[in-house]
Amino acid sequence: MRANTAERWIQDRVDRYGPVSKLSLFGVPTVLLIGPAANKFVFFTRALASQQPRSVQRILGERNILELMGADHKCIRGALAEFLKPDMLRLYVGNIDGEVRRHLDECWAGRPTVTVLPLMKTLTFDIISLLLFGLERGAVLDTLAGDFMQVMEGMWAVQVNLPFTAFSRSLKASARARRLVAGITRDTKAKLERGEASRTSDLIACLLSFTDETGARQLSLDEVVDNAVVALIAGHDTSSILMTFMIRQLANDPDTLAAMVQGNNPIPSPSLDYICLDTKKKIQELNSDHTMAMAIDIQSYSLCRDEEIALSKGDDEALTWDDLAKMKFTWRAALETLRLVPPVFGNFRRATQDLEFDGYLIPKGCQVLWTAVATHMDASIFQEPAKFNPSRFENQSASAAPPYSFLGFGAGPRICVGMEFARIETLVAMHYLVRRFRWKLCCKEDTFVRDPMPSPLHGLPIELEHKAASP
Asked: What is an example of a Pfam family matching this protein (predicted)?
């Protein structure tokens, strides 16, 4: 992972043993499953339980959604989904918009160079802290952010609980963070009882107000704290990586950047009709021998819809839910970034009983490994898989990739519950970035490593130019 050769390691095993093979990882008998059918099996088989390293469980708590199964998992997921459903998220678009603008004004504007990954982590942490806990910037948020940096450093470390180890520092930081979150939870509960808060105030209020289908099951304090901590980690870490690698991609891809700028910048009103009519005419003139040209022009036509956003917005007017729904090209670019650099390389399941897949026996207790890159980079599924091509996600026709090939957000009952939140956060941030700045990479060597999340060389330093300063 740290040498960024894991994709080749996986492919070598597939070439040598086929899509199903057995091995030993971390001293545990393991089965590696590859392919769309295998992905469906892994994500939909109830007898395959989620399995995180013991270090993750000790740091995040035993009642978090990653560890639970059956009715308990369904209840916790229902509570999180209640807060992250579209009807709730549309209430928070303005808050996210405000945080993005403030962040860019304070941390990007007027600076000749910036380092993208740490700034993106700060932005997404501020956003998720506001929506989860109602925490605005200040000493409490700064303390929480510092603790979570240490939490992340030790989550996948060797479990040696000695004072000088990353795991020990992470455990202590987690305990401090959990005490702070527990205090916020108790305060929020008191506000709910006094009528000073509602279930839409933030995630903590929503979790405290949640009841199951029978109306009898409520979440305990430990469950609220455990899952608020998981949501805080998941809500800022993966999104920050996605946006960092989008910026990295756009620096080397002027065509995609130009398309995104065109879709997010104001243009004179008559140009919109001209571009759309001209593109329609071109598409009508194309024949079946010009498949690639047609794909390019259809993509250009889709951008015409994105341009309506900028035409209707003033410089100081916040984006709305309806605006985000029109940013289809930007989101396709985000999905293609997730295909090329998935934040989660893969993960494990554990067989709770003897299972059979494709004629192979998977014994009870065996560890099952799935990986996103195995299908993401399969040339038989995604033509020219190393090429950045957002049009892959333009439609869901029969010619598109088969189901369970793209695992940017997982699949099945455990598909990322925060997928819609990630979409909103990414679209808002990228909208303002491409409208306000130009950039180029400082490092000629355009590489990244995984530890275990992908991280670009030196955190991706870029040279920055504010568009308002250009003639």
From this structure: p450
Binding-site annotation: residue ranges: 416
Please state, in angstroms and rounded to a whole number, the distance separating the CA atoms of residues 278 and 377.
35
- What residues contact 279, with CB distance under 8 A and at least 6 apart? 297, 300, 301, 304
- The Cα 180–Cα 401 span in angstroms is 45
Is residue 300 in some structural domain?
no
Number of domains in the chain: 1
Question: Alpha helix (H) ranges present in 219-290?
Answer: 221-251, 254-264, 269-285
Binding residues for heme: 416
Assigned domain for 278 exists:
no
Over the stretch 309-354, which tens digit does the pLDDT of each residue have? Answer: 655 566 678 899 999 999 999 999 999 999 999 998 888 999 999 9
293 part of a folded domain: no
pLDDT tens column, 391-435: 888 875 444 788 999 999 998 888 888 899 999 999 999 999 999
Write the Ramachandran bin of 313: left for phi over 0, alpha for psi from -120 to 50, otherwise beta. beta
- Measured at the alpha carbon of residue 146, what is the angle toward residues 181 and 90, in degrees to the nearest 5? 55
pTM for this entry: 0.84
Asked if residue 279 is part of any domain, the answer here is: no
C-beta neighbour count of 321 within 10 angstroms: 15
The domain that holds 110 is classified in CATH as 1.10.630.10
